[in-house]
Amino acid sequence: MAIFKTCLSIFALLLTLTILETGNFIESPSQVLPEHNEEESCIPHTRGKRSVATNQWNYTLDVVLNASEVAIIQQFQSSLNSFPIQLSNNTEISDITFTTVCSSTATGFQCRCEDNFAWPYSTCVTYGACDSIVSGICTCIDAIPADGQSCQAISGLLAQVEYDVDVDLNFTDIGTVDALRSILDAGGFSLALGPTVNVTHITITTVCYPNGTNFQCRCEEQYVWSLSNCNTYGACDDIIDNTCGCINNIPTNGQYCVPQTVPLVFYEYQIITEVNTSDVDQLRNVLNSLTFPVQISSSVNILDANITTVCSQDNTGFQCHCENDYLWPCDKCDTYGKCDGNTSNTCGCINAIPPDGQYCQPADQYNVTACLLLTTPSPTTLLTTTPSPTTLPSTTPSPFALRAVLVTSADVRISIVGHVTSVYCIHPVTTSLGTHVDASMPFLLMDNTASLLVKTSTTPSPTTLPSTNSTMAATTVVTNTTTTMSPTTTMSPTTTLSPTTTLSPTTGFNLEMTVQLNKTFTEDLKDPTSVAYNNLKDSMEAVLNKQYGGITGFISVSVTGFREGSIFTDFVVETTEVKNEELAEANKAFSKAVNSTIAPVIGSVTALYNSEKELGITAANYTGNNMTLVCDPSINVEDLRKSEWTFRGRVIKQAGKRKITNSNTRSVLRIEKANAVDIGLYQCTLMGDVLQFRQKRNVIGDDIQEAPIIVSKRQINIECLEGQTVPLKCCVQSPFKVKWFRGSPPPIGSLTPIGSTVTGNGNPFCRTYEYTLGDCSEPTSLAFTCKVDDLDYSRVTTLTISEEPFTCKDADYEEGREGEQSSTECPPGQEGEKIAKCDDGKWILVENTCVIKVIKKLLDFSEVLLVQDVPDFVGNLSAEVEKVQKAVRESPNTISTIVDILGNIADIDTLVVNQPVIRSVLQTVDFIIGEDSRESWTFLNANESNNASSDLLGSMELLSDKINGTFTFETAAILFDRSTFDPDLISFSANLNSSVVLNISNNGFSNASITTITFFTLNNVMPVRNSSFNTSLFNTNNTDPVNALNAAVVLIKVNETIRNVTLSYTKLNTTLTQDPQCVFWNFKLFDNRGAWDSEGCEFVSDINDTVTCRCDHLTSFSILMSTGIPKEFKELLDLITYIGVGISLASLVICLIIEGYVWKAITKNSTAFMRHVSIINTALSLLIADICFIIGAYIADNPAENPENKNFNVPVESCSTATFFMHLFYLAVFFWMLVSGLLLFYRTVMVFSHMSKSVMLAIGFLLGYGCPLIIAVVTVAATAPGEGYIRRKEACWLNWEQTRALLAFVIPALSIVCINIIIVIVVLFKMLRRGVGDAGQREERHTLVVILRCVAILTPLFGLTWSLGVGTMLDSTNRGLHIVFALFNSLQGFFILVFGTLFDSKIRSILARKSPTTSTGSNTTRSTSGGISSTGLNWFHQLRGRRNVYHVSETANSGSAGASESFSNI
Q1: Which residues of 509-537 are buried (b: 16+ CB within 10 A; e: fewer)?
Q2: Closest CA to 139 of 108, 117, 107
Q3: For the segment 280-315, what is each residue's pLDDT rounded down to a tens digit?
Q4: pLDDT digits over 188-197, tens only?
Q5: Do residues 690 and 673 make contact, with C-beta atoms less than 8 angstroms apart?
Q6: How far apart are CA 826 and CA 853, in angstroms?
Q7: Is 1138 within 8 Å of 1085 (Cβ atoms)?
Q8: Which of 233, 236, 231, 194 is nearest to 218 (CA)?
Q9: Is the peptide bond before 387 cis (omega within 30 degrees of 0)?
Q10: CA 1236 to chain centre
Q11: 0.85 cut: is pTM over it?
């Protein structure tokens, strides 16, 4: 075995040597490069040591070994355990590692990797992995790679490599870019593109969009265009640091914006710190122990720190000694006296602390050997303003010396100078020497016990320069040297010179001017380095200097650039003053000169002065106040023609809350009720004939802060109890605070402050004042004012005190007496308040100013809306309204606010409405015109000062005039269509959702378009008043008692004159059949409040519930129809109903008492028993139903929700309960009537049939109560969840308008009435047929007499009078039908008493103490009813006019426990 291993090793080594010598290297798949080693080394060898070349290279070789058995490979692998192996003098094997083992399988080969090696993902996929792929690698594949590849090191495969990939995305909507930007800004982004590729970060670098005929490409934040791109494609913003943020085209080379790189800027500062300490040596030790530099932060290092001066106090004062290498200059030594005996000009100790803060100076850095003689030359002395270079030292400034003082409790004062270096990634600022700059930077001094932070500031002064002449003279040097530094640092020289003469440069202001040349613009004019650019610039500047050089105050003129549009030349004239006449003459001369020498001038030369002074501002500070901006030119702008104001870069129109007032010299912008939307940059441009003046101001949050909102009760009503305390609470949002005062303004200053307790010191801040009640002998009204500290914002609370008891009590409005008012807050998310008045024991809502806050904010934005913002705004409006649509529909003020918003949108002059805009608008309208909003619109229409419905329709008409394009879409309640006329057709016809058909004759139109907007539910919105409307009904909810809007409203707009339009409407309510009127909405009627008008429209036909109209003009059309019951009818019907129900209640009670009294005597057989069971349950059900009716009427008549007893919202919970029981028991009345009818039918038709009492009773109760209960419960379950169970106004009863829940009563009731009518007809037919041929009393058997007698008795008992309800529905204006219906049905209880009980002869006999009997032989018989009578068929026989037709004889057998019934035809 040993021999085998040795042979195998020799074979491998020889193979390797052959490869190295022949150069046939097999490159590693890992692309490992040879490693070059420059170091000297000795390679061990069997022959001893020898030196080798210093250049060493490492190679990685792949060697393939073939073996027939795996064991051979394993043996070879185990033998490789000693490295390095020397192959020759200059070659050795440092390591051999097995990477891959391939073995044959039944289907081919498998190649497995050894430990720490794996196949890359591409190989795993190409050849198929025979194990799992984890982290993009596998260790086994199902083939031998054809390219000779082997397994690679796992560490190399798992090493991550980052790539930057540029991707182009094309969008048609800029909103998509904003959405993408917001997603990317959210962070946490990760996207897996495969097992080995992850997208870790995405950043938008460049956004290109069309700009007229070309494109503009703008860089995102932290990205810029390179200078070459800025010059090649033209920069559309300023070029700063050889970069720009915008270019005027898309680069053809596919380049994008690159990351912005800022060079590191190093600054060195000299910091002088003064420290008071009692132990100088300790401080020295601390400084000596520090190793410099000391890093304070990532960008600030302390290079060194030295003690320069030590001042200590003795008996005579202070002495200040300099440390090594530091000296006092001669002026300090002379001024304060030397204390070290030094005879030279300088010294190391002085006898005072210099008050100017100066300390010892470095001996090697400053010239302290000679003292400068400072003299003040006479005025005739000629100052040398340009010294000889040999007499001037270097003007390079020394490190900035900043002085700061840190004072602690100590005896010794020490000065420490430290050099600090800092790095800032900012653009440097260039500052002229001699300029005062406040600086504030930290210096950190560290020791064992404390970290002291010092902030420094200094003011530099001119530098004193010595002269080399023997005679000392003062010389002032004016220098233009600049230095680059941080904006917060300054340079401070160490010595001070007070010059006698200062030469300052002449300063002026710039006029930005433009001239347009009629010359072709070329791309090289964008490049300031191009020949064409500089040639044209030189030519223009030559003319400019000649023509403008003579104006008063001229300093210089220069060309700043050229722009496309022919050629726009921008230039700047610097001058100290402007004379309009001179400037006008220079402009003319310049234009003439350019015309003759360069190119023709298009138009005139424009001049603009950008003022550095901001616009004046007054007032505002808090929202709700007016704000005024004043544009007052600092130069003379003669012949002021107009002004232009912009806000956030967009022109302000003279509309809404912003008013512009111009005079001859200035312009004023007044903003009414300023709020947060008015924050931004304002710019005013005054335009004269020659000169334009521009002034700006950025209005910030401090200028318009949110006003304090005081929350307190306006009215508190107290029932007096002497000694009782009443808490008065007042709150305001943070950071404001409030105090309570006694009394009410004005003036605020006269109020008496009172003590109160802070009960909330967060947000909000609250104060509570406890008022103690005194004498209660007389009613008292007290006023208390809650006022915001230091601001004129207040709210008064009135405290009404009386011994009278409260008459109104409510959870919201609390307690009050007759005539008193109380207020409550709006629901969450709304602002405003509700005010109610105590009237007749109930709170009546008199004012509601609640409006949803988010909608109110949108109204503020709409008042400053610009045309560019409309698409986004209407989309946001629709989305916000959808979120709160339920609250919107129930809030009249919010609906009115939305109408105002739509009006503001429609009033934008240059607005072009496309499909997305009109769709968003109509979706918003859809939310506010539904059935659920009917009550809110009724409230708005009743208010004379509110014209919301007419304004809504007017806004829709304005928007329809601005539609662009042809398209159709539909919302839930609106159909929009924009079409064009076909000139080849005779007429235009459109079927608008099958409910409206439109036909317009073609009068030779060409390119005519027609816009139709069909509102299917606008009958909920528009008032029904017409031109004859009684204006006294304004401010009431009864806007028109007779008419109704009975069709969809169609808005039609055509951009041609129309003389004939035909419309056909399908009626909304087919029960309204009277007086259809074809009308249009006339906005001018009733002082522009609007009404329906029929002028120019005529009624054509009314066929099959379709009304056709013809009009000779276009606007918004519909039809009006009569609703039926006028106001006076309703009052009469109410009177009849209440009297009738009262009589019925008394009658039903009497009926039940009588039935109970005679019960045993009249219920001896099953027929009589069942008849009286039906009567009792009918009476009982009707009694309970009528009681619920009275309760429901009381609940609904709630003054707090029913101001002035008009339309109102009923309380849902209590009204729903009353409605449920009314529904249940009224249905029970009808079903027990059905039981009575079926009993009559059973005994009349099936004479010989027999049914037991128990069966009849079970059927009766199942029908009488089971069916009504099922119907009532199902109705509640189906309609209550959607709030559609009951009506919302006028009465507690089932809903009709939203859910048609009323059908759950109408259908069963009318069905039973129809069944009972059929039963009556059948019974009458039977009676008449059986009575034919009877000779007795022939006159009574007359058919008419029989029918009338039967109908008179059975009609009230079977509820047949309810069939009159069908007549009132079909003819709602018929006064007689309404009166008869109300009379018969309200008196139904009385009729049951009379016809069901008192007409029964048996009952009358019992009541009269008489019992009629009939003897037949020896047996006593009692006559009973075979139908619905309890005394035989007496009443039935009387109807027929004969007796004893049928006798139902009940034989009384004393020995029988039961009774048998026998029937015979006598």
Answers
A1: bbbbbbbbbebebeeebbbeeeeebeebb
A2: 117
A3: 888 888 888 888 888 877 678 888 888 889 998 877
A4: 566 777 767 7
A5: no
A6: 11
A7: no
A8: 236
A9: no
A10: 64
A11: no
